[in-house]
Amino acid sequence: MSDISPLRQFIIEMTILANEYYGNEQAMVNGTKPLLLDLIAEDGWLPDSCAVDGDTYRQYLLHCDPSQRFSVVSFVWGPGQTTPVHDHTVWGLIGMLRGAETGQRFGFAEDGSLVPGETDLLAAGDIDIVSPTLGDIHKVSNACDDKTSISIHVYGTNIGAVNRNVYDPFSGAPKSFISGYSNTEVPNLWDMSVR
Ligand code: FE2
């Protein structure tokens, strides 16, 4: 059984951060980054139930703050899997736990079509940041052809309940969606007998 205590500690520290800085995007992003770097520095804490791939990429809710000030999600990519071009509407940090992924950023041309921007390769231990002010539209893919990749995402709201957009990669036409989550049960953070 995995030792979930690093995730519990992360949630405790994120809650303290949100108590102080919720509503201040810059402070939340700056405060989340070192916490997430610590969390993804060691593998072995993610419950197996939240690391299972499927016929499309999966997003497992690990924790949602009761006031929905932040949520923590494991994204699991099978070989070759990719997201549509999408936005988030809130700040988010992406921390690579296992394998690698590519993030292709997009902006808009004057005619409303999408313009490809930088492509970043995230290896285990790396972090990427999205937000409406820092650049919010991207497409993410598993960079490994032969194995599952997993990233841990932290967002400034209950991301699975947000009305946001996927975009046609050619016309830029948006289509609204609410992602939900792949799991119906969240991990138990609080069994302190497990060491
Ligand atoms: Fe994303």
Shape: globular
Q: Which segments are poorly predicted (pLDDT under 50) over 5 or more consecutive residues?
A: none
Q: Ions, cofactors, ligands: which are bound?
A: fe (ii) ion
Question: What's the helical proportion of residues?
Answer: 10-25%
Number of strands: 11
Question: What's the short version?
Answer:
With 195 residues, the chain is α+β, with helices and mostly antiparallel strands. It is built from 2 helices and 11 strands.
Overview of this structure, please?
The protein has 195 residues and is an alpha+beta fold. The chain has helices at 5-21, 25-41, and strands at 58-64, 71-77, 85-86, 92-98, 100-108, 114-123, 127-130, 138-142, 149-155, 164-167, 174-177. A hairpin with a 6-residue loop joins strand 10 and strand 11. Residues 86, 88, 138, 140 line the site of fe (ii) ion. Fe (ii) ion (FE2) is lined by residues 86, 88, 138, 140.
Essential attributes:
binds fe (ii) ion, 195 residues, alpha+beta, 2 helices
Write the layout of secondary structure elements.
Elements: H1 5-21, H2 25-41, E1 58-64, E2 71-77, E3 85-86, E4 92-98, E5 100-108, E6 114-123, E7 127-130, E8 138-142, E9 149-155, E10 164-167, E11 174-177
Helix pairs in contact: 1-2
The structure holds fe (ii) ion.
